Amino acid sequence: MEAHRLSLMGYLKKSNKINLFCLEISKQRFEVLKKRFNYSWFYPYNMSSVNIDEFKNIDCFINDIRYFRYNTWLKQDIKYIVDNNIECDAINFIKKNHHVEYFDCVLIDGSAFTGESDFKKIYGSRIIMLDDVIDIKNEKNHEILLSDENYFLMKFNSTRNGYSIFKKIDKS
Asked: How far is CA 21 from the centre of its chain?
């Protein structure tokens, strides 16, 4: 893994066409992130990807044994954002301020409650990577892309709630 990270970092350092945007909601992890990757092409944001009112509605789990756990997590996520004055709607902020219509590559690996809203905002990106596709975060997004004629599945793995990588089909 470390060799892959180093070769990617070497490639990114050489390129003048790369902009890497990273969202981290935790203030503590954000500070570590900023210090670790101090490059002109790296844009870390201590923001929520979407607005609070765009978080997943978990009412569909009301009769599910997971409802209490999900509801607890959802309340914790919202409380953290409110208590720490975390700005929201980072995806739209980045698109507007960096003049991005579609991203080249996106990884959706944030809150279990923002995955579907994140997906709606990044749909059209060339490569879409989804973490936790066997869980509420990205299960629906994974299913949508599997049946989407505009994307093909490059990689799928079911280990630890799974991940998938989709690439947009070039129709030119």
From this structure: 10
Q: What is the pLDDT of residues 5-22, one digit of tens each?
A: 444 555 555 555 789 999
98, 100, 103, 108: CA torsion to nearest 10:
60
- Neighbour count for residue 99 (Cβ, 10 Å): 7
Contact between 141 and 119 (Cβ < 8 Å): yes
CA distance 91 to 118: 8
Joined together, the tokens standing for residue 47 give 């923001």
Tokens read off for 67: 């409802």
pTM over 0.85: yes
